[in-house]
From TrEMBL:
<dbReference type="InterPro" id="IPR050645">
    <property type="entry name" value="Histidine_acid_phosphatase"/>
</dbReference>
<dbReference type="GO" id="GO:0003993">
    <property type="term" value="F:acid phosphatase activity"/>
</dbReference>
<keyword id="KW-0472">Membrane</keyword>
<dbReference type="InterPro" id="IPR033379">
    <property type="entry name" value="Acid_Pase_AS"/>
</dbReference>
<dbReference type="InterPro" id="IPR000560">
    <property type="entry name" value="His_Pase_clade-2"/>
</dbReference>
<keyword id="KW-0812">Transmembrane</keyword>
<comment type="similarity">
    <text>Belongs to the histidine acid phosphatase family.</text>
</comment>
<protein>
    <recommendedName>
        <fullName>acid phosphatase</fullName>
        <ecNumber>3.1.3.2</ecNumber>
    </recommendedName>
</protein>
<keyword id="KW-0378">Hydrolase</keyword>
<keyword id="KW-1015">Disulfide bond</keyword>
<keyword id="KW-0732">Signal</keyword>
<dbReference type="Pfam" id="PF00328">
    <property type="entry name" value="His_Phos_2"/>
</dbReference>
<keyword id="KW-1133">Transmembrane helix</keyword>
<feature type="transmembrane region" description="Helical">
    <location>
        <begin position="25"/>
        <end position="43"/>
    </location>
</feature>
<keyword id="KW-0325">Glycoprotein</keyword>
<dbReference type="InterPro" id="IPR029033">
    <property type="entry name" value="His_PPase_superfam"/>
</dbReference>
Amino acid sequence: MAQVTSSLSAVFLYKHGMVFDCKKMMTIVILSNLIAIICTVVAHKQWGIFSHDPVNGPGLLADPSLKFAAVLFRHGNRAPEISYKTDPHINFFPEGKGELTKLGKQNMYKKGKIFRLLYNGFISDLYLDSEIFIQTTNVTRTFMSAALVLAGMYPPKDYQKWLDEETVWQPIPINQNSPDHGLIFRENCPSFSAISKNLLSYKNEENLTELLSYLSEKAGQSISEMDLVKLYDLFECQISAGLQLPEWITPDKFQTLKSIVLHRKRLDNFFGNSKVQKLVIGPLLKEIALTMELHSNNSISQNKLRKMYLYSGHDISLATVKGFFMNTIDMPDFGASIHFHLYLDETFGYIVKIFYYDRWNTEKEEELPIHACGNPCQLQNFVKIMKANFPRGWNEECQMIEN
């Protein structure tokens, strides 16, 4: 393999524990510890969801030829990010706007149990820092989801039991600043702001004026075109929490709102747009590809490379990944995940496969085709595709406004 570049070396050194900022790492560990204690120990006492038997034998995906796995998963169920004046459930979510709910905590703990079911044997049943690296976007719901997933994957056993009494949790470092830019709507990125206005416009939608007027009247406040996504999200969050929508949200009205917000052509145009892909998931996919490349480098001791990366992220990120690989795009449910696997095949050498799980409790994978990479997708082709599609750094890409 060609000599590893300086940027690649930086990824290797940081993500494989050879250099780090002690002060930042201590802050991250303390934060993850506090989150995990709150999310898992309290849950253990109150929810009764921790009686699953330990996994024995190899996991469903623990093939001997599997050399590396990177998993991007969406956070668990959360509270809505807005409310409206006449909302009958305005006080139902005490966690706060956009925060992980009780149900979300339960589900992401179970997601961790499923990861154990899938990867047992590929990764040890003891937490080993040399095996796994966990990174999250910088919001509390993804930090908490990561903590709960890890609690499900790594219940303390043997020497890692740190209390005499029963506990389902142990401290595991969670790192911030994920390369996933699923929160790009909150970031200062001029090129994304410019392109998203065109791609997400509702101006040509039929019945839009009538719907906005109806929603404004019933909500007791003005509802604009820009409010539709978050209003639809509010209803979806309430439905997932088992709440009944107000009578004025009839099935017909809800379907009209859904058909506008999740219009197939608009979703395809947005998540299939090359600029959106560069900005939302470009850095993440490049990092995964380069890490795979490290694993194929025989001059680097595999004992110094972590076998698994976990990225706690968002629905926009997963949908953009599916769009990049030209797969059918539906907005991912809470706890959905995309799994990138590197295998050493006897015939073709290193090959890449991608699997999709559509929600938190799905145990059966769907393999996603990697278009333009060949079948099987050989690693060198996968890396070439990533480098060709994502040639620039994220900050530079953000400043390049297309006409």
